[in-house]
Amino acid sequence: MNSILNDEKLIQLDSSLRNILERDTLIVLTDYNSTNYFIYRGEPMGYQFEMIKQFAEFLDVNLKLVISSDMQRAFDLLDNGEVDLIAMGLTVTRDRKALADFTIPQIQTKQVLVQRKPENWRKMRTWDEIEDQLIRNPLDLAGKDVYVQKGTVFADRLAILANEIGDTINILIDPEREVEQLITAVAEGEIAFTVSDEHIAKVNQKYYPNIDVKTALSFPQHVAWAVKQGNDSLRFEINDWILDYKKSTASRYVYNKYFNNPRSVNIAQSEYHSIGGGKISQYDEIIRELSEANDLDWRLIASLIYQESRFRPEATSWVGAFGLMQLMPATAEIYGVDTNSLPSDQIRAGIEFLHWLDRQLPPEIEDPGERIRFVMAAYNVGIAHIYDARRLAEKHNKDPNIWTDNVDFFILNKSNPDYYRDSVVKYGYARGEETYNFVVEIFERYEHYKKVIEN
Length: 455
Known about the structure:
Blueprint: H1 7-12, H2 16-23, E1 25-30, E2 38-40, E3 43-45, H3 47-59, E4 62-67, H4 71-79, E5 85-91, H5 94-97, E6 101-102, E7 107-109, E8 111-116, H6 127-131, E9 145-149, H7 154-165, E10 170-174, H8 179-187, E11 193-197, H9 198-207, E12 211-216, E13 221-227, H10 232-245, H11 249-259, H12 264-268, H13 284-293, H14 298-309, H15 329-334, H16 343-360, H17 368-381, H18 383-395, H19 403-412, H20 417-420, H21 432-452
Helix pairs in contact: 13-14, 13-16, 14-21, 16-17, 17-18, 17-21, 18-19, 19-21
């Protein structure tokens, strides 16, 4: 990989990249659909998401996602500096270049007409019989109703096409539904036509074999990310990264995973796909019921269970922790569960243990968001090491009642002799990096769940 721009180059350019590095967070807007970003079996996935994540890791910063399919809002947030980057498979056009600066392209695509095959197409003896009932010549769109997503380039292309054919195409702007929802509407017979980028249309054709996406409405176009105009240091850094990334096996793997994967149909139609079925796991209802009874967000508990066991009740660890909640045998015995207990009992025991840990924390930890982070850390490493980390924080003039950027630093360093041998430490060494990452990953996943899974 090319290295991040050095200080001398950053001084010569704008401050966009420096601001991200100093903030330690890259803020990216993407859209929620079955290719760019979704949740499957509890794990955030998607073509744009995986690339965004890899770029953030390259910069060594945190990633914050903003989710929207509203194109106008996306460009407004970019222009206002509320997001650093739009990563939602934008086709590059002259009009869009007036709103933002674009990176070098990731892929090329073209706009295609999405239409439904004849009702009895499977019974037709030859492909020509099907072809005779499909639009292949744009001239045949004259007088037809074509629905398109608001804010996309598709309406502009259809207007140009109408002018070129010297007739009227009834362009109907849908203010609510995004491209994939309109494709579904075509497949289900609600509307006759929509327009999509070809790579998105081909993925959806796997889900809906009764649609046709072979009629091109444009020449090939570049697909790229967008940054605020003038944010050259960020754009140059992205360009350098993309040049290396496109040469990598990771790039080919990620592209094939989402656009050429025959399993993508089963994934998208799974009940554990956030779009196809809306579930995180088979235990959602149990988790929801027990969490609500204990005044907890069930999506946070689901994130904890994913972290501990990937929703596998038979999971066991090398130290003897078992089940969905990975309770140690001694703790499990207190709450009346063992390896033969039902998943509902395992979850109930884990939540009761969380409440016990919460009661061990002092009332001075008042902020609910910080307090639950202390609880999650204690769930992983034990409450005694949390007491040690709080004492270290107080000694080093940090706030012992705030986890983020305060106590978490000392748990992270609890494997460092300079800290665990300190006179205020009573419980010695701990694998603090594991606990630090445990909390970070649970809450990162929780943020993903909150974005796409209803409470």
